[in-house]
Amino acid sequence: MRTRFLGRAKQHFFMDAHMNEVIEPSVHDDSTLGFGTKVVVTIGPASQSVDVMCQLLAHGMSCARLDLTWGSIAFHKTTLKNLAMAMKRTKKLCAVWVDTSGREIIVERRTTVDESGWVALDKTPFDFVKGATVTLTTKSVEDATPSLLPVNIKQLPKLVRPGQHLQVGRFMATGAEGGSLFLQVTSVSEEDITCVAMNDASLVGLLTVIVSHREYELTHHSQDLNVELPLFTQGDLEYLKEFGKEFELDYVSLSYCNSAADITEARETLDRMGLDQTKIIAKVERKAAIHNYEEIIALADGILLSRGNLGIDFEPEEMAHLQKKCIIRCNAIARPIILTRFVDTMVNTPRPTRAEATDVANAVLDGVDGVMLGAETLRGLYPVETVDTVSKLCRSAEQYFDYRSHHEDLMGEAFDEELSLERSFYSTNSLSDLTADSFSHMQSLKPIQVEQLEKKHDDDLGSPSVLDSDVDGVTKVSSFGLLPITRGSSDAQLLKIEDFGAPYMSKVESIASSAVRTAEKINAGLIIVFAQSGRTASLVSKYRPPMPVVSVVVPTLQSDKLGWKLEGKYLARQCLIMRGITPLMAAPMSAGGSGLLCEAVAAACAQGLVKPMDYAVAILSEHGNFVVKVVKVDAEGTGIMSFGEKYLQPEEEQLMTLPSFATPPTSPGATDTGGMNSLK
Fold first, then answer.
1. 34: which of 60, 298, 310, 449 fits an S-S bond (Cβ 3.0–4.6 Å)?
2. CA dist 363 to 73, 408, 680, Å?
3. Helix/strand/coil (H, E, C) string of 17-36?
């Protein structure tokens, strides 16, 4: 695969500020925490109760993650029910994210299940001595010992060879606790892998095994796709089927996703289960995924950059640059990207270290959409304090994010790539131009017919809120971010680019980028996007505007063979991993036009997203055409000012009425189809 390196070195957008501004105490409005950079929270025993979840939602949690490696079906069902109750109580929206085990290699140990359904392991530590022999086996043994570790993946001996290095460590351990055991493989048989310990270690809890690929060159890493390992375990499939009967799952993440073929397989699997509205997050955690990063981000709905596991394959000095490159590639195509492993010490302490706090801020300045918390909220002592701290760190960094340079860099990058690429070769402006011909090893992908896709998706309001089905040979693509662009005659198009000095964009992105620049020029307090697929909202988020962005979702009834189903509730929650996006749900089948826009402004004002007399920029469709409209919030914050209306100080405050809006759809239960009205 060809790789181009742009001339720009700037990937860290920091707005210059006077020292007096920096040393002033930051003032945070807790009611708006989580409206910018998103916080994904892993739910476990420390955070499962309704009361704790209410506090997490109040302090900025936008997405609740269930880790299927831990806990029973009963435990996770209780979590989802408690989450629904917490959302109803707080009237705050939260997405549901299910993290599968997939290709995780786990050391099998004796377990017990407590009354809540949480799986507990023997807490007796395993002590390893440097130079000792340690055998990994696929045979069934009574229990694990420091010298014999049974693993769950029967194909593991086929995937390693003498001389390779393995890491054995505690699952969801932090850098501030415990350690890792590093092994060097000495011999491999059909069922056993004999190793020598390279360091002393004392390990406790659930242990996982990772094969290190640090010694392999990235350009020759396509053979490490681990295609023999199943994408989902049998347990993953059983959990997803069971959850899908009772709950609405917004995201499913693929552990150890190594190629676009994995995403295609996962999409087909979820569709067969009836989870066609559930979106896919690709977990990038091995060197193979970095090798195939371009094709993965072209098809996935979002990216989770697992910095902990990537640290096994890459040297520490490489990780900072790798992180920045991964973020900027996702930013270029408006693909949401979440990072892991930030405040490890907060598992046991109420405050992060200075390095951890700076790490969060740097990720925000790099352009990340969200941060994920793992052990800190799953089993940590201070889950609420952790979410509150991280939310405030993100909010503080956002104040110094140089959104103007970010906007100009994205525009300039698209211009440079259009001039330099050969005809329709894939570019930063549109990674969806990746076709089967672009990847000789991607035989399973069908060619993307760009003309059909652009015609189908130019109007965001007419697009479905799910991944698009195969139509006339068109490959399924995400409903977030960029679509392929049709250049027609490439030579003629390049001449136009050179003449006008501007990149060629799709109509949707051109409108989105113009709306962001308009809002910045007039110092607007709010951007409003009307959408049914989320594409326009994701493209607005791509340019990281400094003001809040409201995505107004109008649920619609769609025919489902012999019945009908309400679409839109999923999308409202799925917007909660996009930086700066706050979803609002209108009443089902609400009429569009100025009336709905007026109510959207009033609802945003009621939530503190915009103030009376502020300007708001709206992207909407009128008579089938995209329109960017500038309106002004009225003095009472109950709607928009009419043309020619003068500001008069009211004698009495008027009551705020929101006839077409209700509270966000807070329940993940599939049986609750009443949207926000169900909370009343």
1. 60
2. 34, 20, 39
3. CCHHHHHCCCCCCHHHCCCC
DSSP at 647:
P
Nearest CA to 314 among 226, 222, 212, 224?
Answer: 212
Quote the CA–CA distance of 252 and 61 in Å, as a whole number: 18
For the range 444-451, what are the long-range contacts, defined as Cβ-Cβ under 8 Å and sequence gap of 24 or more? 444/261, 444/264, 445/260, 445/261, 445/264, 445/475, 446/470, 446/473, 446/474, 446/475, 447/473, 447/475, 448/474, 448/475, 448/477, 448/484, 449/473, 449/474, 450/483, 450/484, 450/485, 450/486, 451/486
Tens-digit pLDDT profile for residues 10-37: 455 667 667 777 677 766 666 677 789 9
Cα torsion 246, 250, 256, 258: sign = positive
- 675, 102 contact by CB (below 8 A): no
Q: Which of 234, 322, 334 is nearest to 285 (CA)?
A: 322
pLDDT in tens, 495-536: 555 555 555 567 888 899 999 999 999 999 999 998 778 899
Per-residue 3-state assignment (H helix, E strand, C coil) for 337-400: EEECCCCHHHHCCCCCCHHHHHHHHHHHHHCCCEEEECHHHHCCCCHHHHHHHHHHHHHHHHCC
For every residue of 428-467, DSSP letters joined together read: SS-GGG--GGG-TT-TTPPPP-HHHHHHHHSSGGGS-SSP
440 pLDDT exceeds 70? no
Instruction: Report the DSSP pairing between strands 207-211 and 165-170.
Output: antiparallel
Residue with tokens 């994210």: 97
pLDDT tens column, 416-426: 544 443 323 33
Are 161 and 194 within 8 A, CB to CB?
Answer: no
State how far the Cα of 410 lies from the Cα of 544, in Å rounded to an integer: 11
Is there a contact between 662 and 585 (Cβ–Cβ < 8 Å)? yes
**Cβ neighbours for 647, distance < 8 A, ≥ 6 positions apart:** 613, 635, 641
Confidence of residue 216 (pLDDT cuts 50, 70, 90): low
pTM, to two decimals: 0.82
d(CA 205, CA 219): 36
Instruction: Report the alpha-carbon distance of residue 12 to residue 324 in Å, rounded.
Output: 8
Q: Bridge-partner residues for 169, per DSSP?
A: 180, 208
